[in-house]
Amino acid sequence: MGAGWGRPQNCAGVIPKGPDGGKGSGGAAAARASTLLRPNSAPSPLRSPGAAREDACWRPGSRAQRPQGLRSRGMEEQLPWETDCLLPLERQLHEAAHRNNTTRMKELIERRVNIRSRNHVGRVALHWAAGAGHEQAVRLLLEHGAAVDDEDVFGMNALLLSAWFGHLRILQILVNSGAKIHCENKDGLTLLHCAAQKGHVLMLAFIMEDLEDVALDHADKLGRTAFHRAAEHGQLDALDFLVGSGCDHSVKDKEGNTALHLAAGRGHLAVLQRLMDIRLDLEERNVEGLTALHVAAEGLHLNCVQLLLGAGSNVNALTQKEQSCLHYATLSGSEDMARALIHAGGCTNLADHQGASPIHLAVRHNFPALVQLLINAGSDLDATDNRQQTPLHLAAEHAWQDIAEILLVEGVNLNLRDKQGKTALAVAARSNHVSLVDMIIKADRFYRWEKAPRATRSMATGCCSSGCMVWPRRVKTPVKHSSRALWPSAERT
């Protein structure tokens, strides 16, 4: 066996790279395509593998925020050569195919390199040539026996890749070579889904007009049609084409999301406006009870929220968990979003399934500025949740001193007790939050001083010589009490 044909002992070992091989006759277009499609890259972005994980992590109405660091690992994202597990000459064939270097491809084919060799994700040379749009390379591979319907481990074949990347001529060649047009990948994406998601209108037109029996409203495994995909990914032209072709506007996916939910969740303002123009129901709810306004608020898409509010969306609509849009805005800590919702009539005192109003959530997640905004909008500071905790109880539990000071300055009932019978002072003392205990005690003295008749006010009750109380003020240096010494005063409160 020649030295060039030996398989490395360990795929993780160092494997010499194949030659560049030039760019062949593809010219500048081939050079651009080569940056998008490399044999040693990760799988196609066509739901493989990142997109499926992204849908699992995020959906309209899920409490999980859309992941910032996680994105679909597309073909443009390279992986080390050492992971492809190809023979050296097989790797060179893949490289030549993606660069449209037909001269090198012919040399390798003459040396009987396996034309259907697969890399670590099951991708063959035809996949790279089709995805990069190289007509000459595709024809050469087909002439020498490449299987037109070979799939990678994600169910992607050359036909689906050509639709995804918008290479209409490649798709036509593959169809004429006998490719199955009613194919789909392992997530159920068809040619129509691929073209719609990437916004390839000419590809959509060819699929609908020239291919037989293509189902316009075929759903993938998430229950989403091409119309959903175009809306979710902000492809306005593709959306218009599908609408003009007579697709079902009101269809829902398996989570009950309409195209309106998907566009609002991704912040696609132009698509959202178009969907409103065709009169999709603004109050349609998904299985979790979220409207498009909830989804836009959760995604922090302020422009979409303002558009929906202007169109008459119900700002106080509640989900299955009795959460309003203001709850979602509060969980994100967005003052601008909360301000817009309040200005549109959002109620600050609606309680969710756990009895928490927006101010409970703002306190729990330590958003002082948002707490002040909600107070200014009329939030009930003595409202209790299902644990009978007030916002001050939560501030004491988490030792949020800035928020506690805001609440105490506004004036709260210090005698309210939670389900364990503890006041906010007792909660702070139990956790040994000394500064907070001192602050609550001073506030209690001030409240008593305010209620006392003016004639009875004295220095003994906390009045200074000028007649005003030494409150509010920030306690910068904690008073040196032990936890044991704090308990008696806390328990009496």
Automatic annotation (TrEMBL):
In terms of InterPro entries, this protein maps to: Ankyrin_rpt, Ankyrin_rpt-contain_sf
Q: Where is this region: Disordered?
A: 1-75
Do you know which Pfam families this protein is assigned to?
A: Ank, Ank_2
Database matches in SUPFAM superfamilies: Ankyrin repeat
Please list the residue ranges covered by the ANK repeats: 121-153, 154-186, 222-254, 255-287, 288-320, 321-353, 354-386, 387-419
- Keywords from the UniProt entry: ANK repeat, Repeat
Any idea what this protein is called? Ankyrin repeat and death domain-containing protein 1A isoform X5
**Gene encoding it?**
ANKDD1A
